[in-house]
Amino acid sequence: MKFGTKALHAGIEPDPSTGAIMTPIFQTSTYVQEGPGIHKGYEYARTKNPTRTVLENNIAALENAKFGRCFASGMSATETVIKTLLPGHEVICTGDLYGGSFRLFTKVFEQFGIKFTFVNMKDPKNVEDAITDKTKLLWVETPTNPMMSIIDIEAISKIGNKHGAKVAVDNTFASPYLQNPLDLGADIVMHSVTKYIAGHSDVIMGFLGTNDPKVDEQFGFIQKSSGAIPGPQDCFLVLRGIKTLHLRMQRHCENGKIVANYLKKHPNVDKVFWPGFEDHPNHDIAKKQMRGFGGMISFIQKEDTIEKANETLRKFKLFSLAESLGGVESLVGHPATMTHASIPKEQRIQRGLTDSLIRLSVGIEDIDDLIADLEQAIK
Ligand code: PLP
Predict the structure, then answer these.
(1) What number is the average pLDDT over the span 358-365?
(2) Do domains 3-242 and 245-378 have the same CATH topology?
(3) Catalytic entry in 48, 98, 177, 359
(4) pLDDT (mean) for 347-353
(5) For 325-345, what is each residue's pLDDT tens digit?
(6) Is 98 a catalytic residue?
(7) What gap in Å lies between CA 230 and CA 291, rounded to an integer?
(8) Is the confidence at residue 114, as pLDDT, over 90?
(9) Which residue in 34, 69, 187, 264 has the fewest CB atoms around it within 10 Å?
(10) Average confidence (pLDDT) over 209-214
């Protein structure tokens, strides 16, 4: 099955009891058993819920993963991966990554004796140099949030394999429509489902996929033990959202390309970060591992001050000033004060994330209206 067909059909059957074509919302906390231990595969809804099972199988199919699990948020999915580690273990992470992941790693898990090292993964050699015999996990984010750097998943996976470290990829920015990390050798794919997969800015959810039954078993054990699960209504909404994932992504990519090129030519704009540009430092790797370049774009204006960024941000009318990304509607964000405020300023600046950097999540509106809004905001 090809992607668009999988989005609509993989793991989804009409409800056997009624024929309902849409997966029902099984709003139940428990399931009646015929006798002690005699049940239909469902005992208690923290462990399993039929609406969730359908969604987990559906996203797993989109990621070409044998196993998939959904969580209450992207962060609880990430947390589940880290909870498979032990004190003394080390993790090497993409230097320029989502601020919430940075906060979880450094403020929550470091106090349990897990060490996180942040390296510039654009050159895989830096990963090889940082690996020790305690390194158990390589945490990759690509494209990165918000600098749109591209990390070579295949190269990093080879390094992980060689040194016995699992490789996990946060695939949120690409979505499974544009990139499938497991096919490139990664062990784990993670998503903030909240973003492109759900696609309508109405749900918070996370996903983990893997082909390794042992890893999935660990995830399942943590999922039921910690209980960070999504509710069935949210699973239903995401199942509905996925039915148009391929169509939405096509439009995000089309609009993203036009907006990126518009910004690049604009006299008031200094730098534009988008992996589709031929002069993007890792464009060749983006071309190799992605099927399109998406609708996430960051830029810095010539007047590189926080005051100028604030002035511009306030002028947007169609792009809404809000955290998050990947919804059908266009959003504009200011990473330094919003999504990446938890990263110390010196570290942010070192990664190129200046105070004036603006991030766009280009939606699926009519492109002429988006360009008109940009025009009046940055003139
Ligand atoms: N990973 C990336 C790349 C993100 O952008 C986000 C949220 O912005 C997350 C993870 C966290 O996901 P959630 O907000 O669903 O917990």
Answers:
(1) 98
(2) no
(3) 98
(4) 85
(5) 999 999 999 998 888 888 888
(6) yes
(7) 29
(8) yes
(9) 34
(10) 98
- List the domain boundaries for the chain: 3-242, 245-378
Residue from 52, 136, 195, 257 carrying the catalytic annotation: 195
Kindly list the protein residues whose Cβ atom lies closer than 6 A to any atom of ligand 1.
Answer: 73-75, 98, 100-101, 141, 145, 170, 172-173, 192, 194, 204, 206, 324, 339
**Which tokens hold the place of 288?**
């190799």
Write down the residue that tokens 């069935």 correspond to: 232
> Number of helices (H) and strands (E), helices first, in the chain?
14, 12
Residue 221's CB is within 10 A of a number of other CB atoms, namely 13
- The one-letter amino acid code at 276 reads G
Mention every residue, 6+ apart, whose C-beta is less than 8 A from residue 154: 184, 185, 288, 289
pLDDT at 346 over 90: no
Exposure letters 236-261 (e unless 16+ CB within 10 A, then b): bbbbbbbbbbbebbebbbebbbebbe
